[in-house]
Amino acid sequence: MAFGLPRAAAAVVTLVLGLAAASAVADDVEMVFLKSAVAKGAVCLDGSAPVYHFSPGSGSGANNWIVHMEGGGWCKTPEECVIRKGNFRGSSKFMKPLSFSGILGGSQQFNPDFYNWNRVKVRYCDGSSFTGDVEEVDPKTNLHFRGARVWDAIIEDLLNKGMSKAKNAILSGCSAGGLSAILHCDKFKDLLPPSAFVKCVSDAGYFIDGTDITGNKFVRTSFKSVATLHGSIKNLPSSCTSRVSPELCFFPQHVLPTMKTPLFILNAAYDSWQIRNILVPSAADKKKEWAKCKVDIKGCSSSQLVTLQHFRDEFLSALPKPEQSPKIGMFIDSCFAHCQSGAQDSWNADSSPSIQKMRIGKAVGDWYFDRAVSQRVDCPYPCNPSCIDNEDD
Known about the structure:
Blueprint: H1 8-21, E1 27-29, E2 31-33, E3 51-55, E4 64-69, H2 78-84, E5 98-100, E6 118-122, H3 147-160, E7 168-174, H4 176-183, H5 185-191, E8 197-203, H6 218-230, H7 238-241, H8 252-255, E9 263-268, H9 272-279, H10 291-295, H11 302-318, E10 329-333, H12 344-347, E11 354-355, E12 358-359, H13 360-368, E13 375-377
Parallel strand pairs: 4-6, 4-7, 7-8, 8-9, 9-10, 10-13
Antiparallel strand pairs: 1-5, 2-3, 3-6, 11-12
């Protein structure tokens, strides 16, 4: 199983149901196949053309842009990457049109701050958070590790479409895409006009360099394998790689100290992906004693809940200190969730998760437009009755 894709079938079902529920406020958006990028070697794992979805802005949002990067884990071995070639995680041949919702939604009622912006969703088909760049292609596997070239090619195309004249812009993403929003944030800002107002939003992308239940650094080892296989090192922020071992730069806690562009961190303190893959990876739970707890926090024993509370403490300690980082926004709820910006029911609906009566969409908008300082950290589980189990994108 590819690193970062647990319960793949369930995730697909969750996504489909989520989109169906939000159909009343979602936009059907066709795909843009960037065939011109193939000649530059900017391709998916299987060598197919990269794809993004584009909904043009209008009215007051005509010169504003939000670029949202899709998530989907990583592949750390050739075998895992070969599996991805057979689906939309590694080939645009399997991609289909999708709907925009949440932070990309086109409804003024449900997404008042960004509904009429130029809205873009970048599809994820490289398995490296858009950091890979290896020239050689193994003829046995025909794997192309070109994530960084894909990102460069798509951004170049968007600049030519009018983003080069942007007045306001956001680079965002979910999960592996949320990490990518952090890793590419400063570069994104540098490519836009100096006068542009640019910020970045990372949803469920704040992966911590944590220990698992056996005391091992499983996820650190995995990220090292990703960086080595994909040739990611040269595309990670040099301000980070000059200070620490390159694989550590997949952990935002090592990147943020030298970031220049304001960032909003949206994350669940009990991030369901991180609990399944950082705290309790399958290799650390051979007897499957955590099987129920990893699927549903309500199925955790009292001792397992104690472990989860310790994980929350570890997660919070890895966050930047609010008083030292006034430009950083935060919405850290106590939900058992992963990705909360891509679906309307978690972004800005009546039943959306909230902290101190503030919904995610409102918190992000207030932070972006400097209407209010928005740094909210929830109380420990199970204090928040507004939580819903989300795993979108």
